[in-house]
User: Which sequence fits this backbone?
């Protein structure tokens, strides 16, 4: 075996690196299209957003090298410390943070704003990997489950308090990781059922939902009465308990929605569920974005030819709504390509994660695949009008240094871990 | 391993969901694909071409254009404004302002619609200076119709704003645009209108115009409307209108050799210049609600009446064609025709030829009821059943364009009625009906209904000895030809040889001392004609006259119809012959008669009738 210190690129997965470069490149092209104006025509102009993004991209390469220089063991060894540092940086925001667009999510250092929540994802992934890969750790046990959830909830709660609930939502991605590593199925089912009940309650109102759940419950009881009489005798208490919890949940959804949510949150859900139509104020972003994507047609209007992009119709187009630029200028062909790139990218990470011999590397890889997947789902879902407006960036595409670096760190720690897999005997 | 699968599966599932969603949005859902519609990034500006002029057959200008100014509004761009000042500038009330703005909002908040149409030139001068204060409003120039000659409004028609029904049917139009809604303006709308030009302008999200959309590749220039010549002879038309003053009725004059309509008079009429500009709707409503005089009814085209005696020409021709009579056949008339044993089964006749044999010639010029009743009965009874006889008769008659739509280029028309066998089978389902059941058809009464233009066309077909061209109003379209259907000969079912004896009879209507129109004879013009008196159950009979001249190589065929004009030779005959004289000679030679017709009024008669009708109620 060669001494890999001679070559920091030894053993890294070039497919993943190429996918990364492709996404970064396409992302920048669309940021350019979305933010270019007739006043700034030169390619490198640091007063424009595409110019700044070019700097972030340029600076991400030294960052990558820095990540690769560290030994793989560094990340396993100092995972807890990195996590703690990350939590501190999140707490520090409440004292030193800068408020931008209503959220105190930023440190402002000499004109450059840094968003620690973008880096907290990598730290949390390391911490979870460290915890779960421990040989003593068993996800079937309640107290270990509690430890895992604590690790996830701490950054998520801190981020929610900023408030940046969109970024906090990403932490639900870890359910995939924990399930993969042995978390009982009913956690996943619980999550799924409660999400479904949430939407149904909002859409049909709690009265109808209660009625529907009563009917469903009665059918289940009848099924047990006729076919599984024994099981019913043993477990009727549990069934009734579940039903009571469901009723309580439905009521609380209604209560939370109407009394805890602010109007702007309610509006987002109502518009998405088609309960109110409003293309002027609240639904404006989504409507503009969907129209813009649709106007691209099959082949798109061509690079810099999208009149809605060039006319700046979609607010925040270069950040959260960057995908609408792809839709308009590159059409179905282009946007389908980007979707496929992301799908392949996530599947590649899982594939590599599954081949890891080290449990730590595998869990970390699984975590980042889930995080990328969650960002991808929420962002594209929002931009295409399938999900409510939840402002989180599309990895590598959206404008923003912190996000780009955060995702780069997330990915390249994994590439570094993977490069070391042959040493993990 | 089961647990590995969940994330794999979720990623692929979400990927597919997004691909389907994108495919739906970008490929299947056409609502977004029109680069212009549903695109708030593109502003559409129209430029309207000048509407084509309308000239008469001799090149006299009938319809021209004048400039008008419309106040347009884009509701969502309207900013709070000084409503009082704005209203006083436009001379409207605040209530109107709110109503008009709401109407525009209801149509669309983005697309411009007309706020106030056709502002006068003077108001425009003031407004232009103040307009900058009123965001969302702007002035659009448009051309309006102008009528240099106050004549033939029923022929020319008018243009009006499109309503939402028209917009739904014809996508070319947008709220506030104009469309021909009657007369030639309606039939030749597409020719006269031209095509509006479109300019697409790129906007940013603040509605600021940032330049031409895609360098103007979708932009089009307006295509001007084409000028047209109509077949009307303005001098004749105006003369006809003068003759019909204070009488209700219509005149239709046709050039038999072409089917061109020389005059189409409907009385009472109105001044076309009042149907233009902001007072249009006020004036239109007034005309529309005048149910007594019905000035908007084109009596030449839409007035349905039993034709009376002129219809005997048809019976004569059908009789000759069916071989039931010859020109020499005679009938003895004893003051009427008895068609049954009952006391009142008797059709009286005023041909005053008591007892002597009446041949075809005499029957025509003295308008003998008995003769045509006999002929009619012979036609029907020639066939095994009355229904078959009726069908054969119907075929002969309808070949003259009676009882069906003429299918021409006039925007209104009526079908009329020439009954056939089936018609009476339905009427008398359980009876073996015979010709005597509907013997009044023989003298143009009974079930028969015609319009003046159908009678004029029938006259033209007789003048042509057996054919006609569809009567039409279009003479020339700038740059193109008139529709082919107007150049097509329609042959009647009657052989050419049968026309001469009938035409001789029609000639003798004037020439013979006892001819029913002897008093209307014109020296130097060989006129053939037939008087008619259409029985009217509600009042005085209608006066009808048809004529053509000269006898050989006819230049004009005319049908005149005067409501409640007593009998044919009292009003319609003189008017028809004066028209013929005016057209052929350019002047008239009977000042006394002309003066009587020009100044004569039937208003007393109409008033009397109105009172009677009121009393009946």
Assistant:
């Amino acid at each position: 075996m060669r001494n890999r210190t001679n070559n920091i690129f030894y053993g890294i997965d070039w497919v993943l690196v190429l996918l990364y470069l492709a996404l970064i490149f396409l992302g920048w092209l669309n940021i350019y299209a979305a933010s270019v104006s007739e006043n700034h025509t030169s390619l490198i102009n640091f007063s424009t957003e595409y110019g700044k993004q070019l700097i972030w991209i340029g600076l991400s390469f030294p960052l990558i090298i820095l990540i690769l220089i560290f030994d793989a063991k560094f990340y396993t060894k100092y995972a807890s410390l990195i996590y703690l540092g990350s939590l501190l940086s999140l707490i520090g925001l409440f004292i030193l943070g800068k408020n931008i667009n209503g959220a105190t999510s930023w440190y402002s250092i000499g004109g450059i704003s840094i968003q620690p929540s973008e880096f907290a994802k990598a730290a949390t992934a390391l911490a979870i990997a460290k915890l779960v890969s421990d040989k003593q750790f068993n996800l079937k046990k309640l107290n270990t489950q509690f430890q895992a959830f604590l690790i996830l909830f701490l950054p998520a709660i801190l981020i929610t308090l900023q408030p940046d609930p969109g970024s906090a939502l990403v932490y639900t991605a870890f359910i995939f990781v924990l399930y993969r590593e042995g978390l009982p199925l009913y956690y996943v089912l619980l999550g799924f059922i409660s999400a479904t009940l949430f939407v149904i309650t909002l859409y049909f109102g709690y009265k109808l939902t209660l009625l529907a759940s009563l009917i469903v419950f009665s059918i289940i009881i009848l099924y047990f009465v006729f076919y599984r009489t024994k099981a019913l005798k043993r477990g009727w208490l549990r069934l009734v308990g579940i039903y009571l919890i469901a009723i309580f949940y439905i009521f609380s959804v209604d209560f939370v929605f109407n009394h805890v949510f602010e109007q702007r949150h309610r509006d987002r859900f109502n518009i998405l569920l088609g309960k109110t139509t409003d293309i002027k104020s609240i639904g404006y972003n989504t409507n503009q974005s969907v129209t813009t994507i649709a106007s691209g047609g099959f082949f798109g209007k061509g690079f810099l030819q999208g009149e809605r992009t060039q006319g700046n119709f979609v607010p925040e187009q270069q950040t959260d709504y960057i995908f609408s630029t792809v839709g308009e200028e590159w059409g179905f062909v282009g946007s389908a390509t980007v979707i496929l790139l992301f799908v392949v990218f996530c599947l590649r990470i899982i594939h590599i994660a599954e081949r890891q011999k080290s449990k730590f590397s595998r869990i970390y890889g699984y975590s980042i695949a889930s995080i990328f997947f969650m960002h991808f789902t929420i962002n594209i879902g929002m931009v295409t009008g399938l999900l409510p407006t939840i402002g989180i960036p599309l990895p590598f595409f959206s404008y923003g240094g912190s996000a780009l670096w955060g995702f780069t760190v997330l990915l390249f720690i994994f590439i570094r871990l993977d490069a070391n897999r042959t040493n993990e005997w | 391993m089961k647990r590995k699968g969940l994330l794999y599966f979720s990623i692929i599932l979400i990927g597919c969901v997004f691909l389907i969603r994108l495919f739906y949005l970008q490929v299947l859902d056409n609502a977004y694909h029109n680069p212009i519609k549903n695109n708030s990034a593109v502003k559409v500006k129209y430029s309207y071409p000048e509407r084509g002029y309308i000239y008469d057959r001799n090149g006299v200008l009938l319809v021209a254009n004048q400039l008008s100014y419309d106040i347009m509004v884009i509701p969502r761009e309207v900013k709070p404004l000084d409503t009082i000042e704005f209203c006083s500038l436009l001379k409207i009330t605040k209530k109107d302002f709110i109503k008009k703005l709401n109407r525009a909002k209801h149509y669309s908040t983005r697309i411009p619609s007309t706020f106030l149409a056709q502002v006068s030139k003077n108001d425009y001068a003031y407004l232009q200076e103040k307009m900058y204060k009123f965001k969302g409003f702007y002035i659009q120039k448009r051309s309006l119709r102008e009528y240099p000659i106050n004549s033939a409004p029923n022929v020319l028609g008018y243009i009006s704003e499109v309503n939402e029904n028209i917009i739904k049917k014809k996508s070319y139009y947008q709220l506030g645009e104009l469309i021909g809604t009657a007369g030639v303006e309606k039939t030749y709308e597409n020719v006269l209108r031209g095509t509006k030009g479109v300019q697409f302008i790129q906007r940013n999200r603040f509605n600021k115009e940032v330049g031409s959309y895609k360098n103007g590749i979708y932009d089009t220039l307006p295509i001007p409307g084409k000028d047209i010549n109509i077949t009307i002879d303005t001098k004749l038309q105006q003369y006809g209108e003068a003759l019909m003053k204070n009488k209700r009725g219509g005149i239709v004059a046709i050039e038999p050799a072409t089917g061109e309509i020389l005059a189409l008079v409907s009385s009472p009429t109105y001044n076309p210049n009042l149907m233009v500009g902001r007072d249009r709707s006020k004036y239109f409503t007034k005309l529309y609600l005048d149910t007594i005089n019905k000035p908007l009814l084109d009596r030449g085209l839409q007035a349905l009446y039993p034709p009376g005696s002129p219809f005997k020409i048809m019976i004569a021709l059908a009789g000759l064609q069916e071989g039931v009579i010859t020109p020499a056949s005679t009938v003895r008339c004893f003051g009427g025709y008895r068609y049954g044993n009952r006391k009142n089964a008797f059709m009286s006749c005023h041909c005053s030829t008591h007892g002597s044999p009446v041949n075809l010639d005499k029957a025509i010029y003295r308008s003998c009821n008995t003769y045509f009743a006999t002929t009619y009965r012979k036609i029907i009874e020639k066939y095994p059943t009355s229904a078959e006889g009726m069908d054969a008769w119907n075929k002969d008659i309808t070949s003259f364009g009676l009882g069906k739509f003429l299918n021409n280029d006039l925007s209104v028309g009526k079908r009329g009625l020439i009954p056939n066998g089936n018609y009476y089978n339905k009427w008398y389902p359980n009876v073996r009906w015979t010709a005597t059941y509907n013997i009044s058809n023989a003298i143009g009464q009974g079930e028969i209904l015609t319009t003046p233009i159908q009678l004029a066309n029938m006259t033209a077909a007789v003048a042509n000895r057996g054919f006609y061209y569809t009567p039409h109003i279009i003479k020339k379209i700038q740059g193109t030809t008139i529709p082919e259907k107007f150049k097509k000969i329609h042959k009647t079912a009657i052989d050419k040889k049968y026309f001469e004896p009938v035409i001789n009879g029609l000639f003798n209507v004037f020439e013979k001392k006892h001819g029913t129109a002897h008093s209307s004879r014109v020296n130097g013009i060989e006129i053939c004609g037939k008087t008619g008196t259409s029985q009217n159950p509600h009042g005085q009979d209608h006066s009808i006259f048809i004529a053509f001249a000269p006898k050989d190589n006819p230049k004009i065929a005319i049908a005149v119809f005067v409501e409640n004009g007593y009998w044919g030779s009292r009003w319609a005959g003189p008017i028809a012959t004066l028209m013929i004289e005016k057209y052929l000679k350019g002047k008239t030679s009977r000042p006394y008669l002309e003066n009587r017709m020009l100044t004569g009024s039937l208003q007393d008669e109409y008033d009397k009738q109105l009172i009677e009708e009121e009393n009946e109620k």
